[in-house]
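Reopening this one. Same input as before:
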Amino acid sequence: MFERKASLIGLGIALSISVMLVLLRPQVVFDYDFEQFFPQEDEDLTFYQNFREKFENDNDYLLIALGTENGIFDPVFLDKAMNVQTELEGLEFTERIVSLLTLKEPIINAFGVRYRSVLDWESEESLQESKQNLTSHPQYSGNLISEDGRYLLLVLRNEQLISKEDGDLLYQEVNKILGDSDFHKFYTAGKIKAQGEFVDLLQEEFAFFLSISIVLIMLLLLFIFRTWWGVLLPLIVLLFGIGWTIAIILLTGKALDVMSVMQPTILLVIGLSALVHYLTLFMYKLRLGIPKDEAIRLTFKNLFLAIFLTCFTTALGFSTLYFTSAISLKLFGIYTALGVMVMFVAVILITPGLLYLFSPSKVMKRSNPVGFWQRILAIAFRWIMSHKVLVLASFSIVSILSVVALANLKINGYLLDNLPREHELVQEFEFFDKEFGGSKPLEFFLEVGEDGDQIFQYEVLKEIEKLEDFVQESYESGAIISPFSLVKLLNQAQNSGNNKAFAMPSQGQYQRLKPYLSQAISQADYSLISEDQRQGRLSTRTADIGSYKSAKIKKALESFVDNEIDGKLLKVRLTGTSNLIDKSHVTISDQMTKGLGVAILLVGLIAGFLFRSWRISFLILLPNVLPLLWMCGVMWFLDIDLKLTTAVIFTVAFGIAVDDSIHFMTKLQAELKKGRSILYALKRTYLETGKAIVLTSVILVSGFLVLTLSEFGVTFYTGLLISLALVFAVLADLMLLPILLLPMQRIWNKRRVGFRKEARKREAKG
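Same output, byte for byte:
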């Protein structure tokens, strides 16, 4: 299969594939849609999709804060702000802007309803009156103006479910208008801004990690092989594999997203790991004096199964992400698994042909045939065999402590979880959390119960009042928009605009204001109730408090609704994008546990079938499960929470870490087939695979550590935690696994008898 002719044909096939992919001209497209992390086929997602059809999408807005050190109640400042708002209202994808500059409130008198501006700066007297009213009004202070009066908020409602391209265009125009306005300070926050800046960062990081990974690989290759062909040949193979993978991703219509940043580095280090195994064995055979052509053939024949299995189990680890409910993770898992197998194909098709064409016929023999690595590994093996109890006790203690740490890990994630808290974008969102009650939307669905007639029934409004009090106290939210807030505004209107009347009216007062409800509903800036007036919404904004705290409040909310809200009058349900994001952290973490279980089971089945022993299969799995437990201990120690960005790491780490165990066991089985004793076979396996295991682990760890340079949380934590897991896996494979295999003497003796019979049969046939 790996003779010269077949290998050169494989090289020709690889070139043909490359030409074909180039002719298809894949177009590089970057995208970021955080809704792809929502749990799909979920009841809450379906409910919210129906909710926004009746009302509106809760996060299609851009918050714009205009500031001045002297306070916003300055005619010059307000004129400039009004000019900016007028320009913003004229933009193509702007639906409306809510701000104090144009907001009007009703006043009810004997002649009917009239509307007056809440902020009037026509004269100094009217401006001071507006200032007094606004700074003491609970609906405006800390909502549309900051409590210290230095910032004015404009809420730009953009086109519903705006596309990424249109959102980018709108934000660019908004930013230009603000930049040309010469304001002392201005801040912005919202989905269209976050998505645009995420994509810009994506493009920078994708190019950065692709280039730095290539440089790192060249340095590692130079360090390991110290020859020009030992650097150039693997680099060519890896670039072909990466190129094929990215081309396939783009040709299938998949845009590069936040998860794609990691793919080049992951695939490069996995491919390099396979190549190091091949080239190390190839050079070893050349040093033994084996002719070049025979060395190539034997190298690829001997390692083909082991390399295939390591790539397959790694791909298996990634593919289990398909069983999560988040589209982004599904696609990342499938495409990365595909990329691993594409890299394997590239290694198999290209490497033998290049070795036949460019590698030397022999390499310099070492003066000492035992060599540095063999001496070190021999010392390590003797020490381990002499200190079995110490090794087992150490691994047991660390593992028990890690189990305790796992029990104390909490699930917690944030809206901008992929960025560090000190990032400028996060800082701007936190500015709105501090000054304007929050940047994160919070939505509740309201529905009249079986004893109610419609949402504006007095008894139903009393129940909504209790809910609003709970929301403001528990979520520390900003101003609330709801049917009840509309009624409070009308009560204020029939009390000459007195701020103290912004409260629940008495029944008599309510009867007097009811005739004005229809007009007030039509004048409202938000869609508050359904046409039949039996359903409504309660909408506000909160700070990004994290999913852990949100889950506790949600539990308290459910208890409050059950015990304090009359369900026969009002039914309440938490909904909205914030709820879905918080839920996705919990859902994905649970699904990752199941996915990891599936991966472990499948790898166990493969190992059991390969080595024909379920006990051996268990012993292979144990050194690869323990590093995952240790990783939990590190997460607890470093105060790293479980979330979307860390839950996926366990399955991926297991798929990669198990590779070394498979290499070890494949070589051990080959030694046992020669009729050798278990102890001798273990020693030979340890000495011959130890170097490759250490070198490939150094390569993998170095490659993944590069990811810690990323500003994306998912990329940073993937690099840090998988690197640690791989270090732990090497320790387990080279220290724990040999000890675990020793008690299998009886099984190995039976195997050895069978192997000897097979060897005699082969000799007889030969």
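So the earlier flakiness isn't reproducible anymore. For the record, The mean pLDDT is 86.
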